[in-house]
Specification:
Layout: H1 2-26, H2 30-55, H3 60-87, H4 100-105
Length: 109
């Protein structure tokens, strides 16, 4: 029974990872791509690793440790990359509505 539930959770995680890959292709600029990649891959990775942990209960403590690491590092690294892109003056897409970071720092995008 654990293998069935774990497999289902892992498949749902894999679907989120697939959607993240599709979103990376479809998004117009680097900032939107980072947002898509971070949110979808964080959730997809969590679900996939949790599914493995459910399917193999002896691996669950290690899986939870890895999930905690992903939850902490993935958003932080994405934030740092987006901030570096903004400081490097990587242009926004024409379809972007506003640039809150430029408003707060007085910089132009």
């Amino acid at each position: 029974m654990n293998a069935i539930i774990g497999g289902f959770v892992a498949i749902v995680g894999a679907l989120f990872l697939l959607l993240a890959g599709i979103g990376m292709i479809r998004m117009p600029d680097v900032y939107n791509r980072m947002q898509t990649g971070t949110k979808a891959t964080t959730l997809g990775t969590i679900l996939f690793i949790l599914g493995v942990g459910i399917a193999q209960p002896e691996w669950l403590p290690k899986a939870l440790l890895i999930i905690g690491f992903v939850v902490v590092t993935n958003p932080i690294s994405s934030h740092v990359l987006a901030r570096a892109a903004h400081i490097g003056k990587v242009a926004l897409s024409r379809r972007s509505v506003r640039d809150d970071l430029a408003d707060s720092t007085g910089a132009e995008s």
